[in-house]
């Protein structure tokens, strides 16, 4: 019997007693709704092949390849491999792989003209300790803003790029390093729930439209202080066979990045979007 249970305060929901391979549309509908209601959805105890994972992921929207080509699965470009090839030929830990997603709170794809709707991970190997993923609710961040700041932010656009203020990224191929910055409203109305969230990624935001450098830096620093509301966080402790999907339109996340590097922590990862083929091509 399928069971759907809330996890953290204001964020996170867990589904048990289901095999996602066998779900029909009627079985999927409450799962999708629970995800919209709780931003992060965990399905436990799944045994999946890559095709199963892709098929289930496509129920949430088109699955698109991630711009980091170096970490794509060789046969399935839509699959990003997390935690694979962590060591170079000399046996040194490659930090960009080991610490992927651990640099700070973020939302995936803010550098895209149409940011990823969702990101979904499937756990193949879990370390004996550490390696959690932390989540926080972007609606709660918006709700926590003082009224004066909410008013000031209406219609304000942020400028985002792959490398943010720091420039390039070690995971991108050389020819992909030059990323044209894109604009997104800082206050984002979710297209499906109609709720407002603070759309913000401190690592990817470069500037704010029509603000001078000093004002922009000050606003970015101020927004950072509202992102993570203690009453709206969830920390996921991975079990092998977990599927976790997060809504990038209304949540932030970061990897703890603190597991023993000699142990395996391996996930298949997909980026899910809901735009048409044209926009997808410009984003790739
Ligand atoms: O590995 C994780 O826990 C999350 C990494 C991350 O930020 C991502 O996959 O987008
Ligand atoms: Fe991420």
How is this structure best summarized?
The protein has one domain: Clavaminate synthase-like (Double-stranded beta-helix, 4-Layer Sandwich). It is 22% helix and 26% strand. It contains 7 helices and 16 strands.
Rough outline: globular
CATH-defined architecture: 4-Layer Sandwich
Q: Domain count, please report it.
A: 1
Work out the helix count.
7
- CATH fold description: Double-stranded beta-helix
Q: Please identify which CATH superfamily we are dealing with.
A: Clavaminate synthase-like
Largest sheet: 8 strands, mixed
Q: What is the number of beta strands?
A: 16
The separation of the N and C termini measures 40 Å
What is the residue-mean pLDDT, rounded to a whole number? 92
CATH class designation: Alpha Beta
Beta-strand residue fraction: 25-35%
> Could you tell me which ligands this complex binds, including any ions or cofactors?
2-oxoglutaric acid, fe (ii) ion
> Which structural class fits the helix and strand makeup?
alpha+beta
Order of helices and strands: EEHEHEEHEEHHEEEEEHEEEEH
Q: In terms of per-residue confidence, which ranges show pLDDT below 50 for 5 or more consecutive residues?
A: 276-284
Helix content: 10-25%
Radius of gyration: 18 Å
